Amino acid sequence: MKRLFRNLLFGLGGVLLLGAGLTYTPPFVHIRNYVQRGEVDILDYKHHPKRQVLASTLPEPWPLDSNFNKAVISQNLMDTLEKYQTTAFLVFQDGKLVYEKYWEGFDPKTLSQSFSAAKSIISMLVGVALYENKIRGLDEPISNYIDSFREGEKAKITLRHCLTMSSGLDWHEKDRGVFSNNAYGYYGEDMADVIDGLNVEKPAGKEFEYRSGDTQILGLVLEKVYNKKIADLASEKIFQRIGSETDAYWMLDKPKGREKAFCCFAPTARDYARFGHLMLWKGNWKGRQIASEKYMTEALSPAKGVIDPKTGKPIEVYGYQFWMQPYKDLQTVSMRGLLGQLIWAIPSRNAVVVRLGHKEAPQKVGPYFKQDSEMYLQAAMEVLGN
């Protein structure tokens, strides 16, 4: 009996060692990383590999409006902000900070993970590349830059298709399985390999389907045309030029690896607002054109020729990695990320709104927008006296 028990222990030990060893092999390494790092959160940049995004050498602190923090937000709206664990809520108008509130010990120097709001920054970098003639046009095939797109149906996919989330590739955003592309993308260690493994399942350029893989492809293209890391590009081409005050981070797939371009940028709330103003000012920063104005105008408008499968009509809420959320009489454009990372530009009010936090409402308003997002816009309108 003792011998049998000993053999069982040895066998169990062997299985455990084998299992632990497998988590260091490419198909399973994301499982080990998930166990070590845990569920997604806005402070993930503290636990994942990352690369610094240097702030501007000429920082431009935000001027305070004469009515700074004098507005009082209704209690029911404040309750909503707190219910979903908001950490930062900022409102700007006419280039001045009108309202600023933080929770949980966050302050103007606290970094916070963007999740998919970073997709809009990748779009801006494409606009910069177009402005600097690093790419010839949006209808260039991806195959000009990524070898795995040179054959078959993948050869038909263009930059525009990836910008409008209409590549037709088999990255399914709703798949939350252990071996889904989302799992490999966020916790894995080889983003280029994940992209190389994608296959076409529907014609490119026809139908909108939100997929992080399309943004990652754009990131790989930007790396190629500039021969630089995404974090370095974000700093050199945007962050340095818009007066950012605090160094940020971009999370990587592995130490000294590649940026997860589809997510995972971590600046402060005040520096998020600078990207909001780039939306508001169509790629211009105080008289200096950062990204092509023509490109930004198109990027912030519904994508042409792309069908929304939820309505069967042309897409009305998505451009080139930016969202268009209607709210009452307002037309807004926004950067949006998981758990309610939201940066709006509201042209009719010359305003920018930033909301960061740990949670978002499960209920939706229409097929794409969460219920709490309308409450935040309502709170912003109270601040602005509308």
TrEMBL record:
The keyword Transferase is annotated on this UniProt entry: no
PANTHER family: BETA-LACTAMASE-RELATED (PTHR43283), BETA-LACTAMASE-RELATED DOMAIN-CONTAINING PROTEIN (PTHR43283:SF7)
Keyword Hydrolase annotated: yes
Keywords associated with the record: Hydrolase
Database matches in InterPro entries: Beta-lactam-related, Beta-lactam/transpept-like, Diverse_Enzym_Activities
One Pfam assignment: Beta-lactamase
Beta-lactamase-related domain: residues covered: 82-362
Gene Ontology MF terms in the entry: hydrolase activity
UniProt-recorded name of the protein: Class C beta-lactamase-related serine hydrolase
